[in-house]
Amino acid sequence: MNIQEMILTLQKHWSDQNCILMQAYDVEKGAGTMSPMTLLRSLGPEPWNVAYVEPSRRPADGRYGQNPNRLYQHHQFQVIMKPSPDNIQELYLDSLKALGIDPLKHDIRFVEDNWENPTLGAAGLGWEVWLDGMEITQFTYFQQIGGLEAKPVAVEITYGIERLASYIQDKENVFDLEWTEGVTVGDIFYQPEYEHSKYTFEESNTDMLFELFTTYEQEAKQTMEKGLVFPAYDYVLKCSHTFNLLDAKGVISVTERTGYISRVRNLAREIAKLYVDERERLGFPMLKEEAKRNDSI
Amino acid sequence: MTVSNVLFEIGLEEMPARFLNDAQKQLETKTKQWLEELRLPYKQVKSYVTPRRLSIVITDLVKKQPDIEEEAKGPAKKIALDNEGNWSKAAIGFSKGQGQSAEDIYFKDVNGTEYAFVTKFIEGKSTTELLPSFKEVITSLTFPKNMRWSNLSIRFVRPIRWIVALNDEEVIPLEIAGVEASNTTFGHRFLGEKIEISDASDYENTLKNQYVIVDPGAREKLILSQIDDLKQKQNWDIIVDQDLLNEVRHLVEYPTVFFGTFSEDFLAIPEEVLITSMKEHQRYFPVRSVNGELLPFFVAVRNGDARFIENVAKGNEKVLKARLSDARFFYEEDQKQTIDANLNKLEKMVFQENLGTIAQKVERVVNISKKIAAHLKVDEQIEKNTIRTAEICKFDLVTNMVNEFTELQGIMGEKYARLFGENENVAKAINEHYMPRHSKDNLPSTTEGAIVSVADKIDTIIGCISVGIIPSGSQDPYALRRQALGILQIINVQKWNITLEDLFNLTLTIHASHNIRTRDEKEIRSDVAAFFKARAAFIMKDTNVEQDVVDAVLTSGIGNFSYAIQKAQLLAAKRQDNAFKEVQEALVRVLNLASKGEDLGVKEELFENEYEKNLYASYKQIIDEYEKAIANHLVQEPLNILGTLSKPIHDFFDHTMVMADDKKLKDNRLSLLNKIAALIHAFADLNKIQWKQQM
C-alpha cells in the first residue's frame, strides 16, 4: 500500500466515524497537535471530531536527506474526537486492519507514554502504540491545553505516516517509500530535505530570526488584545517555528531556552483562554443540544 | 449453601506497567479491610492484575453477616419504675429507643445499683445487600497518575470499559464511571472473545482459555521457563534483569518469548550502549555466550501466542536495527569532536539557576579536588591525574550518546576519554566520579575517582544548601541525601585522613571565591553539619550501632568518619561488656561531676590527700600517649589508656569530697576532673551512652 492509499484509507475510515475531514493548516508547525483544528478546538464544551494530514516541521531533525529515518519535515495523520468515545481503541485498531495490519499476525501494544508539550501548556495521558516493537502512533487523552483543563476530554490519535509506511512497505530508507505509483518520497522530498537542512544549520540569518521572533510575539499580543483569536494564534505558531529554527542552529543557550519556551507558553495560555471566552460569547454554536448549551453558558 | 464465590473484574484500557505491582497489593489489602468492616468471613481473597484488568476472587464468602445480640443499658431501676411499680416514661422511652418494648426490660446489678437493660438483636445482612459497596474499594485505589476521559469527572488510572461483578452466578449491581456490572468479560484483545462467566471460582481457567493469564506470578513463570528453554536450546546466557522482567510481565496478558538477531557489525559499539538500547527502548533481554561475550541476539516477549511469531521477530529486528544505526551514528559523530570542544559547550549548560553552568561547576570541582589532593598529600602523578579528571569529568554530557541515553553519563565519558588518548586512570576516574550511583553501587576504585567524586558531590550539596535547596521529606530533587551517603562511604572505605569539617571548610572557601553563597555562612555551616550528621547516623545504624552510641560519637561533629565508625562499633560492644563496667563507671563519674565546673588550672599545692595527687600524677603520665593514640586514630588504645585511670578515679571519689565548702578546693578538684573529661570527650561523650552491662 503506498502512502497515498494509506492516507485515503485513513480518511475513509475516520470519515465513516463522522470525523470532519480537514486539510493541512497553512502555517508552519512542529506537530499536528499545534494546528488550531486540534489545539484550539479541543478546548471548551463543544463536540469536535476531525481528521487531517499535517506536514510537521522539526528543524532539529533535518539530516540533509542522509539519514534513513529522520526528516526535517514528516507527515502526521491526526484524529481528534471530543468527547473521547468509549470504543476509541477499537476504532483505532480497526483503522490498522483497514491498512492491512492484521493484529493476529503482529504484536500490537499500548505502552504508557504521557505526552507533554510545555510550550503549549498542554499535557495528556495515554500510550505510544507499538507494532512489533515499533512506535507507530501516539494516543493521548488531553487533560490540559494552554493551561486550561480539558473538559470534556478530547482523545488525540497521531499516526506517523512515514513510520507506518516503512513498516507496511517493508522499506528501510524513508526516501525509498512509495508515495504513489512510480513516485517515491525521495522524488518529492529529497531536495527540500537537503536545502532545509542546509538553510537551518548553515545559512539562516540568525539576527533576522531573533528579530522575527520578537516581531511575531508583539503582533500576537497586539492581535489578542483586539480579541482576534485565530490571527493571533497564527503568530504564536510563527513564534514557535522561529524558535525551533534558532534552537536547531544552536544559538539559544540553555538559560535562554527556558525563557523563550515560557514566552511562547504564555501566549498559548492567553489564547486558549481567549478562545474559550470567544466561543462562549458566541454561545458555543457547535453545541447542538440546547439543554447542554444552556448548561455550559 | 451458606457460602458463595465472588468475582470482581474491572476491565480497563491498558494501565501503565509500572503501576501494577502496587495496584495488586492495594486491591488485595483494601478488599480484605472491606470484608472485615462488613464482618463477612471468607476462606480466601486472591487478587489479579493484567494490563487490562484489576480482579478479585473471594472464595467461600459467608452469605450473611452473623447476627449480633447487643445489650443496652438504660435508666436505674428506681427511675424505671414508678411508686406503683409501673414502667415510667423514662423506661418506656428507653426501650422504644432501642426498638423494643417495655416488656423486654430486665434488671441487672451494676456496682451495687440495679439498672434497666434490653437485649438488642441485630440481624446480619445478606451479601446480596452488601456487595455493591465494593465500588468504594475500587474508587479508593490510588495511582501515581490519574486521568479523566470523555465527559466524566471521575479520575482513575485509565478509562474503565467493563465490570464483572458476580456473587456465584448472580450479577452484583454496581456502576462505576457509567459502566454497569455484568457477567460479561473480554478475553485477550486479539486472540480472545467476549464471554460470559458463570463460575467465579473458575476465573483463572476461564480467562486462560481466552488467552489471558490473570496471575502476574504465573505470567512471570511462563516467561522464565520459556527463556530457560531458549537458553538450553541455544546454549546462551540470557541476562534477565528483575526490573525489566517485572515490567514485561505487566505489558502482556499472554506471554510468548521469541528471539531476534542484529548484525554483528553493531558489536563494535560499546556493549553498555547496545544493552541500554535494547532494554530501555525496546524492553528486550540481551544475550551473552556462556563465556560472557555479548551476542548479536535479543530476547523479547510478545503479547500473544506463537502463531506468526516470525513476523513479530522480523519487525522487532527492523526496529532494533534502526535504533542501533542511530546509536552507531552518535558514537561515530561523538568521536569526531574533541574534549575541548565539548567542554566549551558546557558553558551553555545550566547546572542550577543560582549555581551557574556546568562549566562553572567543573571549575569549582577542579579547585575542590586540588585542595583535597593536597590535604591527602597524594603523590604527584595521582595529583596530576586527579586535576585532569576533574577538568574533563563532565565532557560527555554534551555528546549525542549521553543526550540519547542519560544513564550512560560517565560510562561514555570513560570510553571516549580512552579513545581521545587520556590515560587509563583518568578515563576510569571519569566514570567513577559518579559512583556510588545508588545505594548498592560500587565505590570508586581509583584514588583519582574517589577524590573527584567527593569534590563533585560536596560541591553540589553545599551549593544547594547555600542557595536554600534543602531536602525535606520526599523532596530531594538533586539527590543530596544519596550524595552525602556516597561521600561518607568513600571517606570511610578510603580511610582518608580528612575530617568532614575540613571538607566543609575547604569547599566553603572555594564557594566564597566563586561568589555563589546567598545565605549567611553560619547558617549554611550549621545546616550542612546537621545534614551530614543525619547521614552519618544513618550509616552507623546500618551497622547495628544504636542511637545513643551514635550520639556519643558524633557530639562534637563527625570528624574523621572512618575513625568515628570504628569508635562507634567498639563502644557498641563495650556497652554490654562486663569487663568494661568498672572503667565506664569511673569515666562517667568524672563526666558527671566535671560538668559542674570548668578547668581553671590545677594547683598541686591545694591537693589535700594522696588520692588527688595520685590521680593527677596518673593523668600526667598518660596524657602524651593518649593524645598520640587519638591523633593516630587508634580505636582500642585510648580506652585502654583511660582504663589505667579507673582505679585512681574510684580511689579519688572514695576519699575526696569534690564539692568541698572551700571554693578553692572545690575549683581545684573540678579542674582536675575537667582535664580528664576533656580526654574522654576527645574520644566520645560516654555520658550519652545507655550502658547495658549486667550487674
TrEMBL record, chain A:
EC numbers, comma separated: 6.1.1.14
Domain of life: Bacteria
Subcellular localization, as worded in the UniProt entry: Cytoplasm
Pfam families: tRNA-synt_2e
Main enzyme class: ligase
A single Gene Ontology CC term: cytosol
Family: Belongs to the class-II aminoacyl-tRNA synthetase family.
PANTHER family (alphabetical): GLYCINE--TRNA LIGASE, CHLOROPLASTIC_MITOCHONDRIAL 2, GLYCYL-TRNA SYNTHETASE
UniProt protein name: Glycine--tRNA ligase alpha subunit
Organism: Aquibacillus koreensis
UniProtKB/TrEMBL annotation, chain B:
Any one Gene Ontology BP term: arginyl-tRNA aminoacylation
Main location, first listed in the record: cytoplasm
Subcellular location: Cytoplasm
Pfam families in alphabetical order: DALR_1, tRNA_synt_2f
GO cellular component entries: cytosol
Record keywords: Aminoacyl-tRNA synthetase, ATP-binding, Cytoplasm, Ligase, Nucleotide-binding, Protein biosynthesis
InterPro entries found in the cross-reference section: DALR_anticod-bd, Gly-tRNA-synth_bsu, Gly-tRNA-synth_heterodimer
First-level EC class: ligase
Ranges where the DALR anticodon binding domain occurs: 583-695
GO molecular function, one term: ATP binding
Catalytic activity: tRNA(Gly) + glycine + ATP = glycyl-tRNA(Gly) + AMP + diphosphate
Claim: Aminoacyl-tRNA synthetase is one of the keywords in the record: yes
EC assignment: 6.1.1.14
Family affiliation: Belongs to the class-II aminoacyl-tRNA synthetase family.
Description of how the protein assembles with itself and partners: Tetramer of two alpha and two beta subunits.
Protein name (Swiss-Prot/TrEMBL): Glycine--tRNA ligase beta subunit
